[in-house]
Structures are given as C-alpha cells and as structure tokens.
Amino acid sequence: MAATKRFGKIPPVSALSSPTPILDVAHLAKAFGPVQAVRDVSFAIAPGAITGLLGGNGAGKTTTIGMILGLIEPSAGRILVDGLDLQAHPVRARGLMNFSSPYVDLPHRLTVFENLMVFARLYGVERPKARIADLAGHLDLETFMDRPVGRLSAGQKTRVALAKALVNRPRLLLLDEPTASLDPDTADWVRRYLLDYQAESGAAILLASHNMAEVERLCSDVVMMRAGEVVDHDSPAGLLARYGRDDLEQVFLDIARHGAQKAAGR
Amino acid sequence: MMAGSLGRIGALMLRHWYLLRSSWPRLLDMIYWPTVQMLTWGFITLSMASPSGAAGMGAAGMGAGVLLAAAMLWDVLLRAQLGTTMSFLEEMYARNLGHLLASPLRPVEMLVALALVGLLRTLIGMVPTSLLAIWFFGFSVYDMGLALVGFFAALVIMGWAIALFISGLVMRVGMGAEALAWGFVFALAPLSAVFYPVSVLPEFLQGVAFALPSAHVFEGMRHLLATGVVDLGDLVTAFALDTVYLALGIFAFLRFHKSARNKGRLLQTGE
After folding, report:
1. Label partner for A245 (CA 20 to 30 A): which of A47, B83, B92, B135?
2. Is there a domain that residue B268 lies in?
3. Which residue is closest to B107 within chain A, CA to CA?
4. Among A149, A194, A154, which residue's Cα sits nearest to residue A170?
5. Are B146 and B231 in contact (CB under 8 A)?
6. Rounded to 5 degrees, what are φ and ψ at A44?
C-alpha cells in the first residue's frame, strides 16, 4: 500500500510552502580537492514528510547526508534545521536530528541497554530509562537488552540502530540504507515500523536507498541525484508520469544512463 | 547550557565505564604493565642498595627507592597518555566516532571526557601498583606527601597534551597513525631524565630536556628524595610548561578535527 494512501497526514511536496521546512538545504557544495562531490544542491523537507534521496554510487548522497549531520564541512551553501543554521547552532540543530548509517556502528562490547543509555544521555533525553523501555517495547528489543550488540543478528542490530536513531524523538530522521542486508521479512517490518512511527510522531525522514520499491512505498517526495547534483525532485507519482515509466527503478535507470532532462524528454 | 555540557561529558564517560567494567582483560592490562615495571625496578633498586650490588653507589647517591619512584612516576605519564589515547582509539575501533560527533557532543566536550577517562585509567593502573610497592619493597610513594599530588598532576597533564595531539592526528589521517599512540612517549624518556639527572645529558640536549615538564618533575622528585625538601621552582616550571603543552594539544586536536571534517574523514573512520 502506498504511503500516501495509508497515511493521509504525509504532506505532498506543495506543503513546503506553508510551515518552516524541518530541513532546508540551499546551494550546498562539497569539493574534496579536485573532485566536486556535491554541487549546488538545494532541497527542502516539510515537517512530517518522508523524502527519498536517490542516486547511483558516487552520486553524492552520503556526502550530502554527512554535511546535514555536521560530519562533513560544506565548501559552500547553507543548511537550516527547523530554521536553525547548522553552522551557527550545531548543538541545538544536531539535537533535533538523529541517524542510522551503515558507515557507523554502535560499540559492540556494550549491551543494547548501555548503548541506548549512553546516546539518551548524549542527546539530553529526560527520563532516559523510561524512554529506553518504551523503545524496547516498540522495537521488540526486550529479550536482548542485556546482550552485547556484537552478539546480535543483522536484523536485531538494525532494530537497535533504529532505537538509537529514535532515542531523542528526532524531528528529522536520516536513514542511509536502513534495510540493506536484511531478509525480506525483517526489511518489511522495518518499513512498516517507519511508516507507523512517522504517522504517530510527525517526524520527517530523509531516506537514502537503492531499493526503489522501498522508496515508492515509503516516500512522499523523491530527490534524484546524479554526479553530485540534484537532477530531479518530485513525488513518486510525478516522476513516474513525467518519465512515462511504471516504476521508480526504470526512472532511476533512465536518469543514471541518460541524465534527467534527456530521459524525461525521451 | 553548562548542565547540558556536563551531561554530554558524563555520557561519554559512562560509555567508557561500561566498556571497562565489561572487559576484565582491559582492566588487567591497565594494572599488569605498571606492576611488571614496578617489580623490575624494585628488584634493581634492591640489588643496587645491597652491599654486594655492583652499583650500590648509585642508590646511595640518589637515595634508596629513587629508581622505584622514578619508574612509577614515569608510568603515570605513560598511562595518562595511553589511557587517553586508548579511549579515543576505542571509538575508532568501534566505528562509533560518527555517532558521537553527529550528536550534540562538542569536540571540546569529547576531549574533556577522554582526558577524564584517561585519568581514571591511570588511577586504576597506578594505585594498586603503588600499594604493591609498599607490600613488596616497603617503599611508599605516598611518603612524598603533597608533592606527589603535584608530580602526578604535572605528568598527567603532559600525558593528556601528548594524547590529544596523537588522537587528533589519528582522526585526521586514520588508523595508520595508531603506532604513535604506543611509541611516541618513549622517545621522550631519555630527555625526561627519568633515572638520571639532566646534568648527565650533553649540554645541547639539556635545553631540550628542560623544555619538557617531565624533566622538571623528575628533577624535583630526586631533589625531594635526596634532601626531603620540595623545590617549588621545579613544580611551578613543570606546570607552566604543562599549560603551554596542553594548550598546544587542545589546539592540535581541534585543528585536526576541523581538517578531518573538511576531508570527510569523520563519517568513515578507519585506515
């Protein structure tokens, strides 16, 4: 079932004109020496929207997410998180976000509870034990809260990483390949959970994924990147209509092989 | 603001406390090497002090136990540097740095937390060792009184300064620089004049030695053990130099952090 049908609350792209975007990225650029990894990237995410960030390998998705998280210094541009300039107010802005990425791990020797307690305290969560108990219940972690993270299965680790990403009730959740390396059942569970969580909390989600079916199912809005640039930005339905395709995977391939304008005008 | 800052520092310290309490090999490692060092130098001291000892005059000249005290104070510097650097390396090994630095934790808060964990690791290593020295050799470093607190603090601060520089370098260039964590401080041992007076060094090296806080600590320690009097000049100079070294260490760490952020090294840490 499409996310927009199941949860009427998810605002369409047009909603960006009304409230302050939870994320407003303007003219973002990043060069690593002579390599221009990201160039003039601009997009915004409305509160409560689930936005997909798509692109092939080397398209600049991870660099863009790294800059939004404050882990990579932009060469140019500006990032506002709920109207706060990330550069000027890094502590407050980062407190509004959280993330999960395959590029980082939770300490393997610490138990699930210990990891969540450390991050709850880092994010200044009030009544951290109650929040952790709440997450453990929702994400079905209760049976292995005292187990070191290093001894968990891939599916369990993904749920723990998700719990860490939600521990501070972020208004903006950044997820880089949240279902990569998961079996179909667990991946489906994660997707359903994200939809439920978004609907209940009203949090916005920026989702980088190579799984086009996942993006179609979850996202109200898709940002397509190629060679460091945003080449298209629309709802999944809008992209399908404009490229004359039946699914996002075909749109993705068109853009990856031919570029956005060429592909849309085919 | 201050409460938030203290909370985040406490959170990172809690992370390392969880790690230490869950890993007896780590705890054992912290106590094992200082104890081995203490035993080795303790027996050397005994042999030098005994009438049949070939070098008995060394001990007589400098006062019994001076080698043992020097060995233990040297370990304070070594453990403070290693303890702080290791706390940082644990984050690199765990690929956790991205999580920490994307949280509201400021780099300077991280640095304070690592330094305090380094101090904790030093105390875990050195307190049992110093008590064992009393039991084994009847030598108590605590007989140095308040001066011991000064010597200890001066060496810990120097250890922090070196550790911050090395941690920053590892953050900037990756785990290839890890070897420095283990070897760098040993290069300072000859110049720190741990077991001999600075005057033994060639003249051109004496100036270099006196630019190190550690040399003033060991000179002060020898003076105290030989005369029973604390030379405050040595301690004041050591702390003055420490201030400069620590400022440089913090500056280097923050610059390396900025550079690593610019190069995109914080998201994908490793080699």
Report:
1. A47
2. no
3. A91
4. A194
5. no
6. -135, 155
Q: How far is CA A67 from the centre of its chain?
A: 13
Buried b (16+ CB within 10 A) or exposed e, B72-81: bbbbbbbbbb
Q: Is A145 on the interface with B (CB under 8 A)?
A: no
Percent of chain B, pLDDT > 70? Answer: 92
pTM to 2 decimal places: 0.87
pLDDT for A261: 60
B246 pLDDT band, cuts 50/70/90, is very high
Centroid of chain to Cα B166: 13
Q: Is B270 on the interface with A (CB under 8 A)?
A: no
Quick one: average pLDDT of B203-227? 94
> Which among A37, A94, A106 has the least Cβ separation from residue B103?
A94
Tell me the residues of chain B between 95 and 124 that have a Cβ less than 8 Å away from chain A. 95-106
Ordered DSSP codes for B110-177:
HHHHHHHHHHHHHHHHHHHHHHHHHHHHS--GGGGTHHHHHHHHHHHHHHHHHHHHHHHHHHHH-GGG
Has residue B56 got a pLDDT over 50? no
> Exposed, middle or buried: residue A73 (CB in 10 Å: 0-12, 13-18, 19+)?
middle
Determine the average pLDDT of the residues in B232-246.
96
- ipTM score: 0.86
């009544």: which residue's tokens? Answer: A127
Domain total of chain B: 1
Q: Residues 6 or more apart from A53 whose CB is under 8 A from it?
A: A61, A64, A65, A206, A207, A208, A209, A223, A225
What domains are there in chain A, each with its CATH number?
3-96+171-189+202-264 (3.40.50.300), 104-169 (no CATH)
**CB of A70 closer than 8 Å to CB of A89:** no
